[in-house]
Amino acid sequence: MIALPKVAVVGYPNVGKSTLVNRLTGRREAVVHRRAGVTRDRKEVQVEWTGRSFTLVDTGGVDTADRREMARQVRTQAQAALAESALVLLVVDGATGIGPGDEDLAQIVRLSKRPALLVVNKLDDFGRVDLIHEFYALGMGEPVPLSAIHGTGSGDLLDLIVARLEEQGFSLESGGAPEISIAIAGRPNAGKSSLLNRILGEERVIVSAEPGTTRDSIDTVVELEGNRFRFIDTAGLRKPGRLRGEEVEYFSRVRALAALEKAEVALVVIDSITGLTDYDLTIIDEAARRRCATAILLNKSDLAGLDRKDLEWRLGRKTTLKPPFMVTSAVTGRGIGDILPLVRRLHGLYTAHLPTRELNRFMAEVKAAHSPPLVRGKQLKMYYISQPRTAPPQIVIQVNNKGLVTRSYASYFENSMRERFGYQGCPLVIQFRGKKG
Q1: Which end of the chain, C or N, has fewer beta carbons within 10 A?
Q2: What is the pLDDT of residues 36-91, one digit of tens each?
């Protein structure tokens, strides 16, 4: 597997780093807001330009004078991005000139010994490109003028990035083994980021006792135990009614649900102290609605006792997927080693294709055990079953009249299939198709 080179985007708070990331990717990958400090973790996204690819790493705004704990953790994440980068984009605000933190950041970038480009953002009027001359004083070479919000100069910047990476001998061809995409979802402060850090064995995302620390969906691609995984740490999901007037939290919720859309496997983290709540069940349903293979991680087991039988009964009664669950602790490491095997098993079910002969043998057994229903004097007849698609598994059953399929018999068939083939936690798309002609 060939890892793409990383390009770190660093700068003082509110200079437009996330807007620049969205412009260079051509997608709304990062949350953008006029409030400073919205981005905290480092977020990795893939960029394609003229047939070449690289990984762009968005970071939180770095203020070396801010002594608060959150600011310290943001600086740590930015420094980690610098250490992993093949190229650095130092972004400054061209509308305000050299700021108090720009010189400190320029010094940090120079000391990192990484190749760098100085990007002067917010130059909305390119007739005033002369404004960039003062930025030569930062000692970062020739400044690159740009307006991320309007896109002016973004193509030139991408050309420069590609050229600098190729000069260093990096391969910019994307490829390698397919990834397993995993969304980590749950209510605020359930311990999602702590679990991800424990799985990865490093402080990859910021952890704080303050609910809502993670504000965006943070992608991390790693190779572990012979597989390539894309972990997506999401913001805590709160009830929509509690988000009135909270724009950042609203967009964080939108991003978290979008992460479930693109994930194959969802790990729903539940706080063992508060137990399984109705809104936890809603989050599980959101994952099922987006057709994710789903498992439950009962976190903080070091702080609470659990009634496993009651939990299993509630999950089986309240959810269609009947997801498997396991007990974990990000603090003690309990259950951490079992998470990746569980993910691989769910992904295997998600992508597996069942032989048609085996499916038809199973259907005959189901009909023998429980005859298809009679509706208005007519009996449902099931002729043939097949699986035309995977990811998620799609099952098609040819019947004489799909109007004769009752909800109870469809549920019976689905539950029988889950029990027979071990589809607990895996979405199933079952379609009954009437006989043509």
Answers
A1: C
A2: 444 556 788 889 888 888 999 988 888 888 888 878 888 888 888 899 899 999 99
